[in-house]
Amino acid sequence: MKQLVRHTIMLLAVLLSGALWDGVWAQEEVQIEPEEAVVESEEAEVEAEKLDVVGLIFDHISDAYSWHIATYKGHHIEIPLLCIVRSQEGDWHLFSSSKVSHGHSHEGFYIAPEGEKWEGKLVARGVDGEVYRPLDLSLTKNAAGVLINSLLVVAVILGVAGWYRRRKYNIYEVPRGFVGAVEMLIMSIEDEVIRPAVGKEYKRYSPYLLTAFFFIFVNNLMGLVPTFPGGANTTGNIAVTLILALATMFTVNVFGNKEYWKEILWPKVPVWMKFPIPLMPIIELFGVISKPFALTIRLFANTMAGHMVILALTSLVFVSVSMGTTMNIVMTIFSVLLTVFMLVLEILVAYIQAYVFTMLSSVFVGLSRPEHHEAKREKTKHK
Amino acid sequence: MSLLTPDLGLLFWMLLSFLIVFGALAKFGFPIITGMVDRRREHINEALRAADEARAKLEGVEQEAQRIMEEATRRSTDIVATAVSDGQRIVASAHEKAEADSAARMEAARRQIEIEKEKALGQMRSTVAMLSVDIAEKVMRTRLESDAEEGALISRLLDEAEAQNQKPQ
Predict the structure, then answer these.
(1) What's the pLDDT tens digit per position in A221-233?
(2) What is the pLDDT of residues A111-134, one digit of tens each?
(3) Helices marked H in chain A — which ranges?
(4) pLDDT above 90 covers what percent of chain A?
(5) Mean pLDDT to the nearest integer, B117-123
(6) In which domain, by residue range, is B71 found?
(7) DSSP category for residue A258
(8) Is residue B9 part of a domain?
(9) Is the whole model's pTM more than 0.90, yes or no?
(10) Is A305's Cβ below 8 Å from some Cβ in B?
(11) How near does any CA of chain A get to the CA of B52, in Å?
(12) What is the pLDDT of residues A224-263, one digit of tens each?
């Protein structure tokens, strides 16, 4: 309690001194009025900084060839990653991303500068002199992030599974601590999401759905860690969510039973709605495609928006520099508080989005296996 | 790098890592955990069911004991009641028997007395008759000195006898 009071007093003192300093500074400004050009150039700098905020946010949200950690006095601290490209001639090139960073070119490959086609991507100049995009399987920041997070997921789940494996014949021991928490999470998802949504055959699908849940959850959480090995905006990248959604689509449509396909291709509607123009089948097929599309966009947009808001709030600190010291201090406190709030909220969102993805996937899987549907209907008819 | 166009390289790495993660976890991860938890759950359910059964059984045993106790009490009261009523009955029947016995004995005594009385009466009668005859003889002997007197007496006696004989008619 005492400490809290002391901290509050300190904070107030800092604020007051800031206000005073601001006043002095303002007076000084009045004194050096003739040097308008300097002020203008400062404003220009501020403008540049403002633009830089947007750039910073987009730099973070989009993929990159190297893992940027910080820039200190114009020097970039970053982890170089592997670039894997295949040139037009068909030969593979492997090199470190540090060789192509900051406008350098390596073996004819360079990162397309701003404003050009394929901006920010590795490109090369072909034999005909035209710039082309090679087949690019580079281990980018997001790819590396996905790999790290995958390793983490595997390590966590296999570690927990190992605990059980060691106690195969000891049914009386109940896990505590981390293993217990993971077990609780797994069982809550299986019991409350997968089983009710999928139905009788839930055991068959639960490994996939649980994998999807933990994959998304860990990726979401790691995305919230500010720097390496976290910080890659993996689930906020459309390629990542697209693969996840395609996996669900694959599961749904490949293991869907006859009933499911019948309901799509020959639904129970008046004949004129499906023949000669297959109106209903077309609508149903749209459903098949729109479901994974919705999954993709939902996860991608939610994670990306969360990252954007956090970054924008953090940037308030730097944006408000131009508004004077008092404003800057107030905005800094405001920004820190809001960022903490947003981070906590994003942890919740990380869970919710993983939960929602798993739940929707479970529901889609459940819909693809309408087994006792017909039987029930017939039974009621007979009654 | 546009946000909305998926990047081929990332698609490739994502697919690869997701497939590996899925393969590893689906084979060595989740089934073991969920299977173990299911087993534990089943075990707990079974234990609970067994406990329930045991409790039900115990309750049954208790009820049985209660029932037996009640039965025993009931039977003991029954026995006591029967004993009491039996005793009463025995006493009563003894009474009755004794009464009947005594009555019978009394009856027999009375009859005996009656018989004795009859007998005594008969003896008395015959004795009285003999005595009277003797007396009469003696009287006669003394009185029948004269014939006249004798004749008068005889006639008087005859009259009397006649009157006596006529009276009961």
Answers:
(1) 999 888 778 888 8
(2) 888 777 787 888 888 778 788 888
(3) 2-31, 36-61, 141-166, 177-189, 195-198, 202-224, 238-254, 258-265, 279-319, 325-367, 372-382
(4) 27
(5) 84
(6) 31-131
(7) H
(8) no
(9) no
(10) no
(11) 19
(12) 888 778 888 888 888 999 999 999 999 988 888 888 888 8
pLDDT confidence bin for B46, thresholds 50/70/90: very high
pLDDT of residue A376: 47
Task: Find the closest chain B residue to A191 by CA distance.
Answer: B34
Q: Which of A371, A357, A366, A376 is nearest to A196 (CA)?
A: A366
Residues B102, B94: contact at Cβ < 8 Å? no
d(CA A176, CA B133): 142
Neighbours of A134 (CB within 10 A): 21
A190, A207, A239: residue with CB nearest B11: A239
Q: Closest Cα to residue A180, out of B44, B36, B48?
A: B36
Q: Is A9 on the interface with B (CB under 8 A)?
A: no
How many domains is chain B built from?
1
How far is it, in rounded angstroms, from Cα B9 to Cα A139? 7
Higher-confidence position of B48 and A31:
B48
Q: What type of residue is B3?
A: L
DSSP state of A199: -
Higher-confidence residue of B32 and A12: namely B32
Element (H, E) at B69: helix B30-143
The residue of chain B with its CA nearest to that of A187 is B34
Q: Do residue B3 and residue A243 have CB atoms under 8 angstroms apart?
A: no
A359: its two tokens: 């739940």
Token pair in block for residue B116: 């004795």
Q: Does B146 map to a domain? A: no
User: Among A143, A158, A174, whose Cβ lies nearest the Cβ of B13?
Assistant: A143
Q: DSSP of B87-136, one letter per residue?
A: HHHHHHHHHHHHHHHHHHHHHHHHHHHHHHHHHHHHHHHHHHHHHHHHHH
User: For residues A50 and A43, what is the distance between their CA atoms, to the nearest angstrom?
Assistant: 10
- The whole-angstrom separation of Cα A148 and Cα A81 is 13
Cα distances (angstroms) measured from residue A125 to each of A114, A116, A277, B78? 17, 13, 50, 117
